[in-house]
Amino acid sequence: MKHEYLETSVWFKDKITDPYQIIAAFFDAADIAHHRKIIKNILQVACSDRCWEKQEPGQLLYEFSLLESVINAAWLLDQEKKKDPLIINPEDVFNPNLFVGWHGKLTKWDFLPRSLSYKEFANPYRVFKRFFRFQDITNWKEQLQLLMDYSLRSMNLLELEDIRPLSLYFQLTKLVEAAHLIDVREVNHVGGHVKNRISKRHL
Asked: Residues with Cβ < 8 Å from 197, sequence gap 6 or more?
């Protein structure tokens, strides 16, 4: 699915007709395991004297545009004060229908949201609320710009006094995992194309 940055930018929110489809496009571009890995790699490189070498710079910019798009979608949904429509009890936590996505190459372990509490698993919209309590959307935009700049240069983000890389890592990872749960539970198509159902090997 083509990912148009203009249509997923919160500064052009009049063009965002469905934040859920922005989330769907995010996971159509790559699976949850990939997004977790990218966040980890970005923080590791930004907090070192090395430059990004894992992919060409253009691909890294694309990864940042994807990450910003899901932040924008989360912000819009948080403004609407959304809640999970399902009632999830503790005994339901390992029900694969609640967290296993449609990417066939991953296992249940890959899909499992490891950084969320039970309450966040039961209602992932809680994560969005806490994400924007941690810092507002303007500051998140600035943090993403810093991460990108320091990933592409031989500069160490740890030299800045007001940066908390570990907190950024957990906040971004939790956001992506919460968005993944919403995608699994509430989105059944990507741009009008029905998503594949869970394969039998996951059940």
From this structure: 102
